[in-house]
Amino acid sequence: NSPFHIFEPVRVDINSKGKIRARAVNFIEPGKVVTMKYPLRFESHTKPNYFQKREEYNLIDILSNPTFFPIILAVISIPLLLIFLKQQQGMQDAPEIQETVQRPNNFIQPNYNYNFPDIIDWLITHVGGARRIRSPPEETTDSDSKQKRKKSKRGKNQTD
């Protein structure tokens, strides 16, 4: 064994008569014997790797991370929001544009200078349906409620 090289495994058998036989180790077919000639010559296959190779970071791996998505969204949306606000401020400076923007708002918001009904009031009166008038609950004493329970039990027993 060497800490710097990996060699092909070899098995050396010495029998009781002193005969030496070397064979290559076959882990897949242990019964198969492949003899090797003396003197044994070992060649290094590779250097041993005692540690795992550190994973390299890739830009695609970082961007495809689901926790990174909100950051990407913020980076894209904040400049767009600033551009939009800058355009809105430019629109407020122009009086013609300001008048056209306010006209549709008058249509949506109720204007009480005219005799038009409010949309919500109209929906309540026409679509809301009939309103029920609730009467206040009658006050009962404990003895009254006990008598009502007894009467209802008697009625059930008589029907059974």
Automatic annotation (TrEMBL):
It comes from the Eukaryota. This is ER membrane protein complex subunit 7 beta-sandwich domain-containing protein. It comes from Adineta steineri. It is a single-pass membrane protein. Residues 147-160 have a biased composition (Basic residues). One of its GO terms (cellular component) is EMC complex. Coiled coil: none annotated. Keywords: Membrane, Signal, Transmembrane, Transmembrane helix. Residues 2-67 form the ER membrane protein complex subunit 7 beta-sandwich domain.
